[in-house]
Amino acid sequence: MPAETHSHGHGLDRSDVSALVVERLAELLGRDPDDLRPELRLRDDLDADDLVVLDLVEAVEQELGERMVGLHLDDDDLVELETVGELIDCVCDHLGVAGGSGR
Asked: Helix-strand-coil percent breakdown of the chain, rounded to 5?
């Protein structure tokens, strides 16, 4: 999904955030976005080390941060994330997007 589709910050929903996270993660890992399912474990299944997760969050913050003031994910939050779905939930929670985990 091109960045322009994410430019309507106020209309973001979980599927928008999910698509963005999966696209950026796929780019960083050199994988097909269709292969990145929510249940896959970041480190064990995808070999995404902490640096990849930090790079991903930085890319998401840059993409959405300009439109979603205050988006910042703490490193402590990231260490606890195990799956692609948890990462999506974490971003949704920090953005206040419906469909997050409610943490």
From this structure: 60, 0, 40
